[in-house]
Each structure stands twice: as structure tokens, then as C-alpha cells.
């Protein structure tokens, strides 16, 4: 690659199909990695809750939010990918389904989890549509794709929030903001190749941490 990408993940096989590109790997895998870490460090761990958490996040914050983003930002994406007519609608429907899964989890395991469902359901629609503007900011991104979902994932497993989880959630929020800024640098900075390289290191580091933590939980060490 000799020129900066419009988006760091708009190259390669994901670009060939907009529906697949809309899942936004590798960023979505990083997000799921942090959710995995949040749940496996909980004193209590239910594989069923973990799978429902992944389902809710996939529907609402991966499919839903990203499809809304692409469907709303036609001017940005249309020169590079073909945007299906129904992508925005599918995004809204997926967010609603994700909220539905979250509500089911709250009613089944802890109704206080509804607060996290409401916050992330709002973010899934507000952030990609940039309305209100504060939602589409580094602070908004750090909270909606870092701190809040990390705390929610921990809380639904253990029904409490420990100081460890709280401290880690702040770190995760800062971490995803830095990831976001590296993505911006990959198209706007003279050092864009370095930004892409650091993004890859970050992505694979999160994958390794998540897989190792999950393996440790199931294997008992």
C-alpha cells in the first residue's frame, strides 16, 4: 500500500462486500475481546451469560451501529463501496434486536442491567448519526465502546462492580480512544504507515489477551 487508506480496514477482502465490511473487523473483534476479558475476570462466570452478552453486543453495537454509520454516511463511503439501499433499516432493526436481548438478560439475571442496556442502545444510534454531537466524540467513543460495556459485561456476570473492574474499565476506555486516534492517523498523518503498524499490534494483543483469559477460565488457571 503506497497511499493512506480512507479507513484502515477498508482494504482487503472486507471491501468486496458491504454487508461483510459493515461488521468492521478488526475493530469489532477488539471490542468483543474487551467484553470477554470483563466477564472472565468476574468472580462468577456463566458461559450462558457470556454467549448472550456476545449476541447482544453483536446485534446492537457491531451490526446495528456500524450499518447505521455506513447507511448515514453515504458521502463518505459511497466513492469506495456500494451501499445497499436497506442497510440503514437493517441497522436500526439490529439495534432493536440487540436491545431486546439485553432486556431479556436483565429480566432473567439482574434488572439493574437495564441501565447498561439503555446507555448502549442510545449510543448505538446516537454515535453513528452524530446526534447529539457530544456522543460522537472521543469521550463518547471511550464511554460507549470501552468503559460502559466493559462494566456492564462484568456486572451481568457478578451483579456487582469491583474496584478492579472500575479501574480496568477506565483503562479500556482510554485504550479504545487511542485505537480510534490511530485509525484517524492512518489516513491523515504523514506517519500513516506507523499508525497502521501500531493498530495491528494493538489488535492482535487484545485478541491474545482475550483468548488467554477465556482459556484460563475454562481450564481453571
Sheet with most strands: none
The amount of beta strand, in percent, is under 5%
Task: Give the tally of β-strands.
Answer: 0
- Percent of residues in helices comes to over 70%
One letter per element, helices H and strands E, the order comes to HHHHHHHHH
Count of helical segments? Answer: 9
Mean pLDDT across residues: 92
Poorly predicted regions: none
What's the topology here?
Elements: H1 18-21, H2 27-40, H3 47-72, H4 74-77, H5 87-109, H6 114-129, H7 138-158, H8 163-188, H9 192-219
Description:
The protein has 221 residues and is mainly alpha-helical. The protein has one domain. It contains nine helices and no strands. It has helices spanning 18-21, 27-40, 47-72, 74-77, 87-109, 114-129, 138-158, 163-188, 192-219. The longest helix has 28 residues, at 192-219. The chain is globular.
Amino acid at each position: 500500500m503506497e497511499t493512506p487508506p480512507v479507513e484502515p480496514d477498508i482494504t482487503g477482502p472486507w471491501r468486496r462486500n458491504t454487508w461483510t465490511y459493515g461488521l468492521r473487523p478488526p475493530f469489532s473483534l477488539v471490542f468483543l475481546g474487551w467484553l470477554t476479558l470483563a466477564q472472565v475476570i468476574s468472580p462468577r462466570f456463566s458461559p450462558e451469560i457470556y454467549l448472550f452478552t456476545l449476541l447482544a453486543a453483536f446485534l446492537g453495537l457491531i451490526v446495528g451501529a456500524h450499518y447505521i454509520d455506513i447507511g448515514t454516511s453515504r458521502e463518505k463511503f459511497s466513492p469506495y463501496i456500494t451501499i445497499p439501499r436497506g442497510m440503514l433499516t437493517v441497522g436500526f432493526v439490529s439495534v432493536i434486536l440487540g436491545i431486546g436481548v439485553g432486556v431479556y438478560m436483565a429480566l432473567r439475571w439482574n434488572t439493574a442491567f437495564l441501565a447498561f442496556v439503555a446507555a448502549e442502545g442510545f449510543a448505538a444510534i446516537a454515535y453513528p448519526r452524530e446526534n447529539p454531537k457530544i456522543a460522537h466524540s472521543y469521550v463518547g467513543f471511550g464511554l460507549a465502546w470501552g468503559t460502559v460495556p466493559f462494566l456492564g459485561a462484568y456486572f451481568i456476570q457478578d451483579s456487582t462492580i469491583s474496584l478492579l473492574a472500575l479501574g480496568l474499565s477506565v483503562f479500556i476506555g482510554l485504550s479504545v480512544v487511542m485505537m480510534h486516534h490511530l485509525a484517524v492517523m492512518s489516513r491523515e498523518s504523514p506517519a500513516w504507515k506507523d499508525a497502521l503498524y501500531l493498530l495491528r499490534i494493538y489488535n492482535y494483543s487484545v485478541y491474545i489477551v482475550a483468548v488467554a483469559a477465556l482459556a484460563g477460565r475454562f481450564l481453571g488457571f
